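We were asked to recover a plausible sequence for a given structure. The inputs and outputs are reproduced exactly as logged, with field labels preserved.

PROBLEM: sequence recovery
POSITIONS: 198
GIVEN STRUCTURE:
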C-alpha cells in the first residue's frame, strides 16, 4: 500500500525541495539562541518586498558575508564593508537593507546587555510560551497581530530599522513564538513538542 503524502502548510511549494526542507525542519521551531534569532532578523528584514524563497536561496551568501551571523562582528562593519557587500550578488544588494542589518546588530547587542539575551526580551512578548493559532486553511493566515504591532513600535523606539509589524510577524512565525502551522500539517504538534522552559 502506498504511503499517504504528508500534509504540509499551503504556502510550501512542494516542487522546491529546499523550501520543503525549510518548512519541515525550521519554520516554527522555537528558537532559544540569540545567534539564530539574529540570523532570522537579518534575513526577514532583507525580505521586505521580496519572496521568502528569494532570501532562502541567498541564505548561504548571507552567512558568508555577514560573519556567519556573529552579531558582534556585524556590529563592527563600517562603510567599507557596506561597499564590499554592495558588490556581491550572493545577497540582496540594497544599501538601506545592508545598513539596517549593521545598525540592527548594534541595537541587538544593546538589548542583550539590558535583558541578558535577546531571546529573553522577545519571548517575554508571548509570556514565554508560543501562541498556537487555529489555522484551518490559507485564508486563516494573517500578516500582523497586536503583538507584532507592539513589538514593532518598541524596536523602532530602540532604533531598529526595516522591522515593521509584518516583518516581525514573519519573524515570530519562523522562530516559533507563534505556531502558524496548518492544523492538519504534520509539523503542528511536532514543533509544540520542542518548547523549552525559559
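RECOVERED SEQUENCE:
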Amino acid at each position: 500500500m502506498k504511503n499517504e503524502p504528508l500534509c504540509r502548510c499551503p504556502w510550501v511549494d512542494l516542487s522546491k525541495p529546499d523550501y520543503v526542507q525549510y518548512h519541515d525542519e525550521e519554520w516554527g521551531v522555537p528558537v532559544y539562541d540569540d545567534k539564530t534569532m539574529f540570523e532570522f532578523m537579518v534575513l526577514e528584514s532583507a525580505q521586505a518586498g521580496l519572496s521568502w524563497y528569494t532570501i532562502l536561496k541567498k541564505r548561504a551568501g548571507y552567512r558568508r558575508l555577514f560573519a556567519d551571523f556573529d552579531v558582534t562582528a556585524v556590529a563592527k562593519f563600517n562603510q567599507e564593508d557596506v561597499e564590499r557587500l554592495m558588490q556581491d550578488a550572493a545577497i540582496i544588494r540594497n544599501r538601506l537593507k545592508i545598513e539596517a542589518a549593521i545598525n540592527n546588530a548594534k541595537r541587538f547587542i544593546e538589548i542583550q546587555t539590558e535583558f541578558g539575551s535577546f531571546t529573553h526580551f522577545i519571548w517575554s512578548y508571548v509570556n514565554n510560551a508560543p501562541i498556537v493559532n487555529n489555522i484551518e486553511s490559507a485564508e486563516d493566515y494573517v500578516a500582523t497581530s497586536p503583538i507584532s504591532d507592539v513589538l514593532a513600535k518598541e524596536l523602532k523606539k530602540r532604533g531598529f530599522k526595516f522591522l515593521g509589524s509584518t516583518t516581525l510577524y514573519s519573524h515570530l512565525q519562523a522562530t516559533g513564538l507563534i505556531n502558524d502551522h496548518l492544523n492538519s500539517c504534520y509539523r503542528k504538534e511536532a514543533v509544540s513538542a520542542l518548547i523549552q522552559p525559559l
